[in-house]
Design brief:
The complex is a heterodimer of chains A (about 110) and B (about 110). In chain A, strand 6 and strand 7 form a beta hairpin. Chain A is globular and about 40 Å long. Chain A starts with a strand and ends with a strand. Chain A has about 110 residues and is mainly β. In chain A, about 0% of the residues lie in helices and about 55% in strands. Chain A has no helices and eleven strands. Helix content of chain B is about 0%, strand content about 50%. Chain B has no helices and eleven strands. In chain B, the strands form two sheets. In chain B, strands 2, 4, 5, 6, 9, 10 and 11 form a seven-stranded mixed sheet that branches. A four-stranded antiparallel sheet of chain B has the order 1-3-8-7, with no helix packed on it. In chain B, strand 5 and strand 6 form a beta hairpin. The chains are: A mainly beta (about 110), B mainly beta (about 110). Chains A and B meet through strand 4, strand 5 and strand 9 of A and strand 5 and strand 10 of B.
Chain lengths: ~110, ~110
């Protein structure tokens, strides 16, 4: 079993839809969780950062962490064509001394 | 502007040749990382460095080498021992203890 599992999609939605992106993980020591957005042929950019369980909201984006289920989600409200990208979840057990473990990424396409 | 610069953007090499990918940052970050991205594979860690003159192997270090002689620079050499070097290579940096990576825009290496 891989440490981080992420459905690669692709996921296609109409403009204005609510999008749910998810990752599951096996390492119960993970406590730092991130979502990155990557446009085609570009480097990923940090979108959301969450520590431990709970929700975090930033504009149209909401990140949720359920450590009991080892499950994290990213919700995008009122999706826009500019949201079309690959979304990567990433996580770590420690803040220092180790590198991030990434999911494979989910490719999202929002049509106008 | 602060950021990470990877060069070149595209690189073509003949099989059996060593090639060095450049990564320079002016963010004053202590930690730097190299990831490889293949379709359907997500980001896989090659090497990372938390301090000058020190670095650690990641999950797929075989066939790669790095150096960290300056804080700003973390070049990656893809050697002829790497069996399948064609990929998209991403360099990232962070403060030590920080997990919000800043990524470069990547180098696409094609070996023919």
């Amino acid at each position: 079993q891989k440490e981080v599992e992420q459905d690669p999609g692709p996921l296609s939605v109409p403009e204005g839809a609510i999008v749910s992106l998810n990752c599951t993980y096996s390492n119960s020591a993970f406590q730092y969780f991130m979502w990155y957005r990557q446009y085609s042929r570009k480097g990923p950019e940090l979108l959301m950062y969450t520590y431990s369980s709970g929700n975090k909201e930033d504009g149209r984006f909401t990140a949720q962490v359920d450590k009991s289920s080892k499950y994290i989600s990213l919700f995008i409200r009122d999706s826009q064509p500019s949201d079309s990208a690959t979304y990567l979840c990433a996580m770590s057990a420690h803040q220092a001394g180790t590198a991030l473990i990434f999911g494979k990424g989910t490719t999202l396409s929002v049509s106008s | 502007d602060g950021g990470i610069t990877q060069s070149p953007k595209y690189l073509f090499r003949k099989e059996g040749q060593n090639v060095t990918l450049s990564c320079e940052q002016n963010l004053n970050h202590d930690a730097m990382y190299w990831y490889r991205q293949d379709p359907g594979q997500g980001l896989r860690l090659i090497y990372y460095s938390q301090i000058v003159n020190d670095f650690q192997k990641g999950d797929i270090a075989e066939g790669y080498s790095v150096s960290r002689e300056k804080k700003e620079s973390f070049p990656l050499t893809v050697t002829s021992a790497q069996k399948n070097p064609t990929a998209f290579y991403l360099c990232a940096s962070s403060i030590v203890g920080g997990l919000g990576y800043t990524f470069g825009s990547g180098t696409r290496l094609t070996v023919v």
